[in-house]
Amino acid sequence: MIPILYQDAACIAVCKPAGMLVHRSAIDRHETVFLMQTLRDQIGRHVFPVHRLDRPTSGAMLFAFDAPTARTLSQQFEAREVAKTYWAVVRGWTNDAGRIDYPLKELLDPIADALSDPDKAAQNAVTDYRTLARAELPFVTQARHATSRYSWLEITPHTGRKHQIRRHLKHIFHPIVGDTSHGDLRQNHAVAAFCGNQRLLLHARSLMFTSPESGRPVTVLAEPDDDWLRVITAFGWHSPPQAPIAP
């Protein structure tokens, strides 16, 4: 069952499982399980996505029940009227808080974006983060260090570039654990050996939007899955405060 976080007559917010595609895609032609189809079968009605989450990312995702509502909600995202926060576990000890203001080139899919301009200028991209916890663990990933350090971050992206959080954290040399595209494979293997982690440790924690039905602000919180919690326990961390970062 897909966990339902919020529902009204116009839209529904759910907690997307890590590793599940939102809809059919050329990324994996052999995949047979998709979030949209699973949710449709679960609630007995069609849903329309209004934003995206990468396949390996878990957490809060919003759908509309009809095309006009989907356009209305999509416009909220485009106008940056929706506040999003994420949790991530990254390599190294980060500052208490920081802003990553670093333009990103558009990532083009060789099939879907075959006609796009590969020389398009980089787009502005801004991400804020706050450190929730740090850990120093008794295993070696670099020969000059006897231990390995990690941080648990709460992240607020202010723009919506493809893989923005993953690419920004790589840019400041704190890649997300479990990231096979923009991460550190040596760190990924070390954490997997330490506590069995096999997933990208990026989770869409909260989503704040305006309901098209009531016109009122709605905040949804998505709890992390058991795999995430096992990592947190293994790292010796406890749950941080429930309140998300203010937009």
Map the helices and strands:
Layout (H helix, E strand, L loop, with lengths): L3 E4 L3 E6 L18 H9 L4 E2 L8 E7 L2 H12 L4 E9 L5 E5 L24 E12 L10 E10 L6 H8 L13 H11 L6 E9 L6 E5 L4 H9 L13
Parallel strand pairs: 4-9
Antiparallel strand pairs: 1-2, 2-4, 3-4, 5-8, 5-9, 6-7, 7-8, 9-10
CATH architecture classification name: 2-Layer Sandwich
The averaged pLDDT comes out at 89
> What percent of residues adopt helix (DSSP H or I)?
10-25%
Tally of individual domains: 1
Instruction: Supply Rg.
Output: 18 Å
Distance between the termini: 31 Å
Q: What's the CATH H-level superfamily name?
A: Pseudouridine synthase
Q: How many β-strand runs?
A: 10
Strand content: 25-35%
Which of globular, elongated, flat, extended, rod-shaped describes the shape? Answer: globular
Structural class computed from helices and strand pairing: alpha+beta
Question: What's the CATH C level?
Answer: Alpha Beta
Query: Helix count?
Result: 5
H/E element string? EEHEEHEEEEHHEEH
- Largest sheet, if any? 10 strands, mixed
> Ranges with pLDDT <50 over ≥5 residues?
110-115, 242-247
CATH T-level fold name: Pseudouridine synthase
